[in-house]
Amino acid sequence: MVVLFEKTDYEIELFRDDAAYESAHVWTNEKHYIRDDAGEIEEDWINNRLKIVHSTFEKEYDSYVKKRKYFYGCPHELYLETFKERLSLHLSKHEDYTLITFIESEFKDGVFLFNRPYVSSEKMQKIQASLRKRYEFLVERAQEEKYNIILLENDKVQINKIVKNTLIDDDDLIEDNSGAFEIKERIIVLYKLGILDYLYNHPEIDSVLRIAKAVKSFTGFNFTTVQPYINPIFNKYTDQSGSALKDKGQVEKIQKHLDDHVLKAKK
Length: 267
What we know:
By secondary structure, this protein is mostly helical. The chain has helices spanning 6-25, 38-66, 76-92, 99-106, 121-144, 170-177, 183-192, 195-200, 208-219, 223-234, 248-266; strands at 147-151, 157-161. A two-stranded antiparallel sheet has the order 1-2. Strand 1 and strand 2 (157-161) form a beta hairpin. Helix 1 packs antiparallel against helix 2.
């Protein structure tokens, strides 16, 4: 089995060994006290030394892309190009394997997190953009097979068979979704009314996933649709691009709408 990014891993080990030596012999004096200028010396050394790691990673990354070789975090174009072949290989390994078992295996390496250390921030942003497109593509493929992909809080997913909720009539959902507010706008309303905070602080609700399920119980919206909108609200360190609160103009518009209704109710 070919080990990917082997040269990068080697450079990382060299970096760590060199850093340990520098710490013991350069950033401290002969009595092992920290030098007054150690912080500045250390920062300059690390920045310069990491350029070798970054350069090695870039070369290996570009080499795999040029060879059209799939790897976790590859550009989305390459991911789509190799998808069918890798799916076929997966299906050939066992008679009970399906598209869903393949999607499960795809997420074993991660969803959005690219955990290789010492990757430059610029390259990391590009990789995470590719991983987001991969996630959206796999969500669509799963839904075609009547499965939902639920994003969990530890960069894992849960894949469930879609079960029709017989308590909610399809016509009611169609009518409900065609009202004054779209789903994202209604999430903003729930946030502004304090309902999301109430659920978040409820003693029996311990995750965003449970909040999404609670919202589903009184709105009829699929919690896998709701969760991506609310997850960034309560997890400040996750990607905020999907947050229901991202569009400040939309939030302000809905706040004004609510205020107007409050004023009307007072009259």
